[in-house]
Structure prediction request, 259 residues.
Amino acid sequence: MYDGSTPAAVRGGHPETADAFGQALLAAAARDGQPATAYIITERDDGMISARDACHYFTPVGGDDIENDVLALARGRVLDIGCGAGRHARYLHSQGLNVLGIDVSAGAVEVCRQRGVTALLGNIYDPPPLGRFDTLLLLGGNLGLLGSPHLAPQLLASLTALAGDGAQILAEGFDPTATEDPDDLAYQRHNAALGMPPGAIVVRVRHRAIATASTPLWYLPAQELAQVLADSDWNIGRLWQRPDSPSFWIQLTRHTAAA
Prediction:
């Protein structure tokens, strides 16, 4: 019998790889998206941890002037990429638009369906046949799905294949260089030593005893995005950026006609 005089054995091992993001959203949805029900724990590959209350993914659209201005541009058939709990898709559907959500998380797709949002499981780098769209959403920071300098052309080509004539992308990103956090700066120095851009990160989401697979993301300042787009079918249209925030919202417009 353990008498407390010595440390108990520590259980070893690693979290099971599973849909941690979706399970956190399902837990929050079971409580109608109430605060403090579940948290989205993000773990960077250097061990840096951050947490966000999952209620954010259920917050109604309307409280942010820039977000309102961006969503007001949505038109036609809309694809919400990385739809999460369907926050943006649900709002645009209420505005009379034809919206489809897509996410790699089965739990997120299930939450969307519970909330009346049409959504399907899929990977935007290799999407299933979906037809063409007039508006493609990469909101909620999903401009980071550019992934890396190597993956970005693949994502942009996938978006072009889904885009109709005159289509647009409405995206949200952030400037990774706008930080004074010593851990972030150390991460960026490590990237530089490896020949990688400062905003290239690898993360996974944790929930209870499970974790998603590690995912590469790439964030970069809006001013550098034009270079990434140079060999694609996309141009920068409008840009929204607050002077006191690293986040920005951007409209990309397609400059060639669909084949």
In short: The chain is about 25% helix and 30% strand. The chain has a mean pLDDT of 93. The first strand starts at residue 16 and ends at 17.
